[in-house]
Amino acid sequence: MTPRQAYPLYFFLANLLHAVSGTEPARTLNWLSALAGAAACGVFTWFGIRLTGALVAGVTGGLLLAGSYTFWTQAIIGEVYTLHLLLTGLVLSALIWWSERPSLRRLAVVYGLYALGFGNHLMMILLAPAIVLFIAVTPGGLRQMLSPRGLALAVVCAAAGASQYLWNASHLWRWGGFPPPLEAWRTFWYDVTKADWRATMVMGVHESALPTRRAMYWWDIRQQIGLPGVALAIAGAADLLVRHPRRFMLLAAAGTAAFLFAYTYNVGDVHVFFLPAHQIAIAFAAAGAAALLRMSRRTRRPWVPVAAASLLLAYPTARIGDTFPAVDRSSDRRPVEHLDALTRGIGADTLFVADVNWQIDNGLDYYTRHVRPELNHIRVRDVPLTLPFLVRDNLA
Question: Are 50 and 73 in contact (CB under 8 A)?
Fold first, then answer.
């Protein structure tokens, strides 16, 4: 048994928000996901503008991300993926900013944001090939990256980013004595990197299942941005390849790594792991929107660019209106209502011994901690051998 803890940055921000707001933890986590999702859309809009040089194209990309189904569903629950897309958006934006005037200070911002992202989700490693490639192909970038100061900067930022996981090691002390250094390091590495998961899940999809995975992804990308969005992404990729090959390489490398990881990741909820790949596809769609706007300006009719911009903004806005009824959970109180019914009539003088499925068990654990702390609740599986004595003593 190891004291597995994950997502230190997410929980640090959640604890901070909880201390400020004073709301119950579940509501705090949902708010954090929603706030991170809103910030991710804003950052991505700014990134689209810097990527393409077109305001309407950037806003189109931001709206496409905001209205994408999977992203929205992760923005209204306690999950880490909206914060992950916020951080990847910040790293990509910082890379574009650095490339406009390469300097060690700007590179420090790139490294710092990238290292910070490791505290939220280890999928951030998938950005490494794109970062290295983009820096290497930017004039002066390779020399800057491999200089003694550049290497030292990378080491310092990597150490700072990894230090977010030191809270895992703190649990070992609480459990009564820290093990020998080598064993402690092995336990820490196993715990942080989830070595058991990686061994069975990363690149764990059997080749016979890959055609089904391809069909699933094609259905999924259409659910996120629709066929017009896919067409814009293809056009944008072709346009960037011709006009800004280095930026095309950045997005292509980031999107390919993210896609291949999710495509071969053997989990049931693979749709959430496609989110970084969807983010890159939407960036290409923003580039496609910019290309469409440039084409519209070549006509002699002044209304054509206005119509093109209006259509580009109307499409993702309409998708938001279409997606909202399917993802809205603002009035969903079924978990609380179910647990209210389950515990109705039970007072503080009663011991509530529960034997329920794991989902209700998790909910009941939270409910008796934060909603009705006066309830005395234990699980049957915690007292299987002493249950008769527990019943006898409480009746007495």
Answer: no
Q: At what angle do helices 81-100 and 128-137 cross, to 10 degrees?
A: 10
CA nearest to 48, candidates 303, 306, 260, 313: 313
Mean pLDDT, all residues of the chain: 90
Runs of H (alpha helix) within the chain: 8-21, 25-52, 55-67, 69-74, 81-100, 104-117, 128-137, 141-146, 148-162, 166-174, 181-193, 195-201, 210-243, 245-263, 270-273, 275-297, 303-327, 334-343, 358-366, 387-395
CA-wise closest residue to 281 among 320, 319, 245, 229: 229
pLDDT tens digit sequence for 109-168: 999 999 999 889 888 999 999 999 999 999 999 999 999 999 999 999 999 998 888 876
Report the distance separating Cα 16 and Cα 30, nearest Å. Answer: 14
Distance CA 197, CA 215 (A): 25
Report which DSSP code applies to 127.
G
Query: Is 72:38 a contact under the CB 8 Å cutoff?
Result: no
State residue 1's pLDDT score. Answer: 39
Q: What is the pTM of this model?
A: 0.90
CA distance 55 to 62: 11
List the one residue out of 151, 131, 273, 264 whose CA is nearest residue 203.
264
Closest CA to 280 of 43, 44, 37: 44
Comparing 89 with 268, the larger pLDDT belongs to 89
How far apart CA 273 and CA 124 sit, in angstroms, is: 12
End-to-end CA distance of the chain: give it in Å, rounded.
37
Round to whole Å and give the CA distance between 129 and 151.
Answer: 16
Which helix (H) or strand (E) segment holds residue 24: the answer is none
Longest dimension (CA), the chain: 92
Predicted confidence (pLDDT) per residue in 343-356, tens digit: 998 888 888 888 88
Q: Which residues pair with 351 in a beta bridge?
A: 376
